[in-house]
């Protein structure tokens, strides 16, 4: 196998692992904080709003956007490490 083929296989393995981890985090925040733990989180207030309400309405979206930026940053580093970048 050529070096690029090995790097591509490593790239996709790392990509799938990272996507799985980030999707689990997003699901845990969306489902867990917005639905399962909403009653416990509602005991905490931020800016006058109950924390459970915040996560159900806005918090999971903010977490998702942060995860998108993290994914892009991490994949750029991975592409450079495996010499698959487009520069």
TrEMBL record:
Keyword Transmembrane tagged: yes
Source taxon at top rank: Bacteria
InterPro entries in UniProt: Na_symporter_ssu
Domain called Sodium symporter small subunit: residue spans: 9-84
Transmembrane segments annotated in the record for this chain: 21-41, 53-73
Pfam annotation, one family: DUF4212
Keywords per UniProt: Membrane, Transmembrane, Transmembrane helix
Protein name: DUF4212 domain-containing protein
Origin species: Marilutibacter maris
